Amino acid sequence: MANEAVFDPADSGEPDHQGRRRFLTATTVAVGAVGAGFAAVPFIKSWNPSARAKLAGAPVTVDISALQEGQRLIVEWRGQPIWIVKRSRAILEALPTLDGELRDPRSENADQQPDYIQAESPELRSIKPEISVLVGLCTHLGCSPEMVAEIRPEPFDPNWKGGYFCPCHKSKFDMAGRVYQGVPAPTNLVVPPHHFTDDNTIVVGVDPGAA
Ligand code: FES
């Protein structure tokens, strides 16, 4: 999708002016971009620190009030794309049925999510069941996987239950970012530290209770 293509984390490390210009352009476009394979959210409010502050790791506050089921909001934190996805009931019901096909179904690799995510929701990997927050970079070589959220047969998996597919080397993740067995990616997608300040506001980069 175009809104994924415009974000290039590699630009963030370039010291030259040309690189900085490209980064600022990418940041401007990436913050608030929404993709779902369905319809775009007409507007997403988010209020954020400067690009320089974000590179240093400043938290990013996101208003998700316009996010609909099946949609993905993409923001940027620490030079990485952060996906915020609203999952449907059908997707949530399908997730536990996939455990036998996954490499780390209960999120036991502690490097891939904060402790509170593993402790409270090892299968859904989220604070609220319907809202998934992930770092949108494949754990194989860092490509940004495609979201294929519909439950339907796909060319790469006739029993597809929705998830993320990385066309680079065909890694597959479910809608909780859990990696399938038998693919190049070694681990689940990363869940970044985050918390809710109210039903429609997420702060990425700060653990619950640490604000
Ligand atoms: S980078 Fe995703 S499968 Fe290789």
TrEMBL record:
Taxonomic superkingdom: Bacteria
Gene3D superfamilies, per database record: Rieske [2Fe-2S] iron-sulphur domain, Single helix bin
Species of provenance: Luteimonas marina
UniProt keyword terms in alphabetical order: 2Fe-2S, Cell membrane, Disulfide bond, Electron transport, Iron, Iron-sulfur, Membrane, Metal-binding, Translocase, Transmembrane, Transmembrane helix, Transport
Protein's UniProt keywords contain Ribosomal protein: no
Coiled-coil region(s): none
Subcellular location per the Swiss-Prot or TrEMBL entry: Cell membrane
Pfam families: Rieske, UCR_Fe-S_N
Protein name, UniProt field: Ubiquinol-cytochrome c reductase iron-sulfur subunit
Encoding gene per record: petA
Cofactor descriptive note: Binds 1 [2Fe-2S] cluster per subunit.
PANTHER family (UniProt xref): CYTOCHROME B-C1 COMPLEX SUBUNIT RIESKE, MITOCHONDRIAL (PTHR10134)
Record note on quaternary structure: The main subunits of complex b-c1 are: cytochrome b, cytochrome c1 and the Rieske protein.
Catalytic reactions on record: a quinol + 2 Fe(III)-[cytochrome c](out) = a quinone + 2 Fe(II)-[cytochrome c](out) + 2 H(+)(out)
GO molecular function ontology, one term from the record: quinol-cytochrome-c reductase activity
Record's bilayer topology term: Single-pass membrane protein
PROSITE patterns xrefs: RIESKE, TAT
Annotated TM spans: 23-44
